[in-house]
Each structure stands twice: as C-alpha cells, then as structure tokens.
Amino acid sequence: MKRIDSIQNPSIKAWKKLLTKKGRENAKKYIIEGLHLVEEAIKNDAPILHLLICEEIDIPATFTTGSYEVTYISKEVSKALSETETTQGVFAIVEFDFMRVDIKSIKKVILLDEIQDPGNAGTIIRTADAAGFDAVILGKGCCDLYNGKTIRSTQGSLFHIPIIRGDLHEWITNLKQENIKVFGTALEGAKPYKESSKVERFAILLGNEGNGVNKELLAITDENVYIPIVGKAESLNVGVAAGVLMYGLS
Amino acid sequence: MKRIDSIQNPSIKAWKKLLTKKGRENAKKYIIEGLHLVEEAIKNDAPILHLLICEEIDIPATFTTGSYEVTYISKEVSKALSETETTQGVFAIVEFDFMRVDIKSIKKVILLDEIQDPGNAGTIIRTADAAGFDAVILGKGCCDLYNGKTIRSTQGSLFHIPIIRGDLHEWITNLKQENIKVFGTALEGAKPYKESSKVERFAILLGNEGNGVNKELLAITDENVYIPIVGKAESLNVGVAAGVLMYGLS
Asked: RNA 2-O ribose methyltransferase substrate binding domain location, by residue (chains A, B) (predicted)?
C-alpha cells in the first residue's frame, strides 16, 4: 500500500500542476475530485492512472479493484489537491481522452461556439447527456473541458458521451452532408423555435455568452431559431437556453 | 459632492456589513454592484438609498439625477465593498422591497421549495422574467434573494417581476382556488411534461437540488410532471429544468 503524507512529495507536486490548464496540457492528464465523479469515472472505464484516497474516508470496495495505482494520502495533501472548500478526500488522475464519434451514427449533437464559462459548458454537457444527445462538439474559444469547475458542472456526464474538440465550420458542413439539420441560434434572421418543424436528426449550435454565435457560422446553418423573450429580461443564460432547445426541438 | 476615501469611514463600515445575510437583515437593505445591475435598479424605480461611484469610472448621466444620495469613493473603498474579482466601481444601497402581487392577476407563477444555490435561484428568476411569468414565490429554506451571487445571476430580473417570500402550502391552496393549475415536479407518481395538456394559467413547483420537492407539497398539487432523462445523467440542473418546463408548458 502506497502512502504519501507530505505536500513536498514529488508526485504531489506534479499532480498539483494539474490544477492549471498549462499543467494539464503539458501532462495530458487531469484531476477529478469527489466520490460521485470518481465513481462515474470508474463505472465508465475512464483511463484512470492513479486513485488518491484520504486516510479518513470510507470508499466503496469497487474503488480499489481497478488496474490503476491506489495511493493513500494525508489530510494535508488532500487539502493541497482540492479546489473545493470542504474536500471529500477522493481524487483520480485521468488521462486525456477525447473520444471519437462516427458522424453516421449521430442523431442529435450540440455544437458550442466560444462558450467561455466553465459552469455553462459543464451544465450543457450534463443536459446533452440527459436529453439523449450523442455528442458535444467544442469549437475554438471554448473553455477548458478539464477545468475543475467544468468537470464538476458536468456531474460526471463527461464520462457518458463523447466530447470532441473540432472546427465548427467543418462540422456544420459535414453534418449537413449527412442530412443532419443544423439549427443555429440567433436573434436576427431567425424564427421562434416552436415554429420549426421537428426532425429526427439535428444539431444545435450555441454561442458565446455575450456575443452569441459567430456570423460566419450562422450563415451556413440550415435554419436559425430563437427562444422568445416575453418579459423584460435581455436574454437567457446559455445553459438554460441549451436545455430549452434540446428538449423543445426533440 | 460627497466623497469617501477611507475604508475606516463609518458609512463604509456599515455598508460592508451588507455583504453578509445577517447584516442585510438587520439593516433591511442590500448592496448591488456593477453598471448593468445599477442601471436596471434605476430604470425600474427600485428603492435606492445611496449610489456609490468610484472616481475613475464614467457613468451614464441618468445615474446622478435620482432622489438618492450620490457619493464618490476611492479605489480602495471600491475594492472593500466588492464581491467580484475585478469591480466596475459602481454600487447602490437598496432598501428591502418584497413586492406584492394580486393572485387574481396571475397567469403564470414559479414556486421554489428549498432551492439552496444562489446561482440556481437567480437563474430561475431571470428565466421566469424572460418567459413572461408574473411572479416567483420563495418558500422556506430557499437561499437569500439578496445574496450577491443570487442578484448577479438574476441579471437584473429581480427588478422586473415580483419575488415574494411565502408559505408554499398556502400558495398552492390559494392558486388552486383561483383555478390556476399547479404542476409539481417529481420522479414518482408523475408523467412526462409533454403529455400534460396545456392550460392558460399555471404554476410550476420546483424543489431542492438534492431532494426535490417536499412530499407534503407534491400531495396537494393538481398534477406532477417530470422531464424524461434519456441518457446516463442522473438528473438535470434545477435551473435548466425550470427553463425546460417554463417554456415547455407554455
């Protein structure tokens, strides 16, 4: 049984670097925290390299039967690796793993254009999973999928459906060739989403919190829709808008 | 022109107390921050007592024509009052103002049962405003409406529609007497929301992030509905669920 007590330990120093985007990209690994997320990673065969368990907590027996290394850590080490105020003391170090998806098998997909808030991106991934979407495509300018806040907001859904970094222009072109209807979201030159006829296979393109979807992308969609604002609010939160459209167009 | 440079000034000390729930409740006032929120408060005639403006920023001319006191503050004071990382240096001190609403005029209303996350509560208020709902009722156990995070998440919608603290059992009883259909949200004994027949006047009852709506309340609704989960996610974020139902049942 391996055990690390000191935050000066070289492995801990290396894992702490995974709390920054640069550190994650150099190592091609990320860190997840909390019983629920670690359980989801194990259940869904995520490429876990190490499991770190604080000496004081009880874990399910299934946690220690994987092919990854299990290390027990002190409370002090647990605090050093945590991004939350009260840590549960369970962590996993996971390898980057951008899944692939065969476009021919896609029925419903979400395309994200410059979604910057990690909470929004994570919530959209969670909703896409819940609504039965086949994949989420992250275009350029999107926040880091492996940011702790993004991961926590997915509530584990990043282990359930493929999340792919890609060029949205290419994706839209390819989806259209595949006869998958691409809905853009826009305020101008668009119609209320409830007036769109429903189709079996479709994609929803959502844009930046402040500026919406890039115009060059809106120009190549099949149809652009909006969610009517009845009251005095200027807009909807993009995570909420995503949910309304995913369920509303299904 | 009044001007305060020191964080030791008694007014500043008193206003800093508004950053805590206890301080707000003692003073029956709250503080808002940022150009957009202050502008919304002014436009919607919120009961503003003081406007605080950092010397270095430009403000719209309309900001200084109200009946409230305007005080210029130093950068140091601005930082001391701010809850955000990069403050815009504009604040307003506003009196508590739980609006009233005539139940006879209500067409659509949201009831919140123990929603604890300020971001969720604020987002639901913003969506209720956008979707044309007439009011949001906060039952016991809900987070503080005047928490900075709740206010920021409303994006100003707390100045657009009445937000009322109330007893949900009483509200449900009264809404039903008024022939307003009350939809509860539950996983058991409920049907998919798309199978519900649409009605002109209705209420949606949403519950706690972890435990859902209290059973005693679900027992007295007209009908309970759920949003189908197709994928592997365990649930939807309650702010997203609220949006799906507000637009889906309308």
From this structure: 31-99
